[in-house]
Amino acid sequence: LAFATRSKSVATMAASQEFTGNLKREVEKLFDASLRITVPDGTSVETEVAASLPGKPGDYQCNNAMGLWSVIKGKGTQFRGPPAVGQAISKNLPASEMVETCSVAGPGFVNLVLSSKWMAKSIEKMLIDGIDTWAPTLPVKRAVVDFSSPNIAKEMHVGHLRSTIIGDTLARMLEYSKVEILRRNHVGDWGTQFGMLLEYLFEKFPDTESVTETAIGDLQTFYKKSKTKFDEDPDFKEKAQKAVVRLQGGDPIYRKAWAKICEISRTEFAKVYQRLKVELEEKGESFYNPYIANVIGELDSKGLIEESEGARVIFLEGFNIPLMVVKSDGGFKYASTDLTALWYRLNEEKAEWIVYVTDVGQQQHFNMFFKAARKAGWLPDSDKTYPRVDHVGFGLVLGDDGKRFRTRSSDVVRLVDLLDEAKTRSKTALIERGKDKEWTPEELDQTAEAVGYGAVKYADLKNNRLTNYTFNFDQMLSDKGNTAVYLLYAHARICSIIRKSGKDIDKLKKTEKLALDHPEERALGLHLLRFAETVEEACSNLLPNVLCHYLYDLSERYTSFYSIHQVIGSPEEASRLLLCEATAVVMRKCFHLLGITPVYKI
Ligand code: ARG
To answer: How remote is the CA of residue 394 from the centroid of ligand 1, in Å?
Structure first.
């Protein structure tokens, strides 16, 4: 029953019309109140409110009349059909300054038109109090976002770049929604690759003290060489396997060499994070090592673990392979660490929502250990109740040839080079437009960076993350279409209009009124007011593309407004400047949530 969760009395509803940020929720509250009067006692009903499609009458519609009719007809109701139910829903709507009109159409759709005056007032208030007052409130206090998570000494590839970009955006959106976020870099620093890496290191550098980054040179090449040796030399292979056991058993010499390799990798990863301005706290696989045995013990005591061909596994309904937790040689697996990390996050870190960002290829792994955790009673059976876990999967990055993205020269793509190239290209484009003559070198560099990195991020985020995306510099750096460049320029143009007006916008906010009298102004205003509900939707479905779509729409609506209405020098100048400023504020917040640095000049 919807009413059980939204239990405000009708009287308080009518009074509370101050905008709390989520427009759809505000409208829902009004219809909740109306339905409570309209519906006979004891009828359960979930309020159905949706934003009206463009071109339809009304801003929001309530779709309950039809469903309600089928529940109450033939039960002595006074209503004659769905339209009559709709009429009653409309009539029983509490008085609210939010509402301009409410009417019924067709088989009983109740269309609500918001008051333009109220809309304008709510935007004015946001301009004064700041956009953080629009932040959604989610039903969780603390969450983990497990993202980026490359593997030490192995390649940090474009898949990790996607994870870094998507994870950072999700973390930002949740942080804005007042959730405390533990940004976790679950680096692969404990796997079997270390056996061969360490043995190879001891061979090359008998004195491990002499090992430095420059001595090892490129860690990926080092990894490849050790792998070749591992595959070709049986003696080396045996030594490598023993090395893993010594490392995991805590042998100081092995631990020291291991730490050195990790340090070198970390420096490499940091270059990418620093360019992207992404913050992460490393708690790699090794961190959970001391807890694994206990966690496996707990699962065992719950009767989850069985023997199978010398290994210890968990059989799970719906999967044709079991989840392996202890190998036949006693070693632990990826899943053992993930189960332990989950236990730690739930019990030690008290996270209520744990979000994992990896390619869809790992979906089965996540589904399996999530299921094991449910079986152990760590998580509720329903996957939308808290504590909650979600695997945020994403598709591949493709090259223009439709195959996995590679660079021409080598089979690995160095992420640092990739980002640098985006910046260089955006700088070249700015120079072609003569900006090197207008701006200081710092301005040129900062803009090139904001645009270049922003383009890479936005190209990744704008499509549904599950689809593969094609990495193409020309497309992402184009100033036309749905690109970061286009959006950043749109924002800069708004800022330049405000600058050219010569007006002090902070003063206008306090002294002038905003009016949404013309259809284009009103459509833009309505879109601004839908910002928070959009962020909330993007958060609950973990879909950054929802926010990208919103941002692109916003700039389109702004263009429709600006191409018809004069701002500077018009009788409505003050009001329109406020509308420009509100658009710029919301755009900047979108950029911020997407991890893109806004630019103010173009
Ligand atoms: N290191 C893994 C990889 O590169 C990703 C780890 C994702 N996080 C996790 N808790 N399993 O594929």
So the answer is: 13
Token pair belonging to 582: 């509100």
Kindly give the number of the ligand 1 atom that is closest to the alpha carbon of 358: 7
Strand pairing partners for 151?
188
Which pLDDT band, with edges at 50, 70 and 90, does 214 fall under?
Answer: low
The total number of residues written for the chain in this structure: 602
Average pLDDT score, the chain: 92
| Confidence (pTM) | 0.94
| Burial track 108-129 (b if 16+ CB lie within 10 A, e otherwise) | bbbbbebbbbbbbbbbbebbee
Q: Residue ranges of the alpha helices (H) in 304-362?
A: 334-347
Find tokens 């270390």 and name the residue.
194
How many beta carbons lie within 10 A of that of residue 3, not counting itself?
Answer: 16
The ligand 1 atom at the shortest distance from the C-alpha of residue 146 is: 8
3-state DSSP call for residue 470?
strand
Q: Which amino acid is at 465?
A: R
Residue whose tokens read 């992402």: 476
Q: Where is 144: in which H helix or E strand?
A: strand 142-146
> Which residues have C-beta within 8 Å of that of residue 327, sequence separation ≥ 6?
311, 333
Residue 188 CA: which ligand 1 atom is closest? 1
User: Residue 217: which region, alpha, beta or left (left: phi > 0; alpha: psi -120 to 50)?
Assistant: left
Distance between CA atoms of residues 33 and 55, nearest Å: 27
Q: Which of 152, 358, 359 to mutate to test the pocket of ligand 1 (most atoms within 8 A of CB)?
A: 358
Q: Whose CA is nearest to atom 8 of ligand 1?
A: 186
Counting beta carbons within 10 angstroms of the beta carbon of residue 134, is it exposed (0 to 12), middle (13 to 18) or buried (19 or more)? buried
Does the pLDDT value for residue 57 go beyond 90? no
Distance separating alpha carbons of residues 600 and 494, to the nearest angstrom: 9
180-185 vs 109-114, strand pairing mode = unpaired
Q: Which of 74, 109, 137, 97 is nearest to 13 (CA)?
A: 97
Model pLDDT for residues 403-446, shown as the tens digit of each residue: 888 766 556 678 999 999 999 999 999 999 999 999 999 999 99
Cα separation, 149 vs 205, in Å, equals 28
Task: Read off the pLDDT of residues 285-300 as tens digits, 9 standing for 90 and up.
Answer: 999 999 999 999 999 9
CA 4 / ligand 1 centre spacing (Å): 40
User: Going by CA atoms, what residue is nearest to atom 5 of ligand 1?
Assistant: 149
Backbone angles phi, psi at 314, to 5 degrees: -120, 120
Q: In this structure, are residues 551 and 527 in contact, taking their beta carbons and an 8 Å threshold?
A: no
Give the mean pLDDT of 116-141: 96
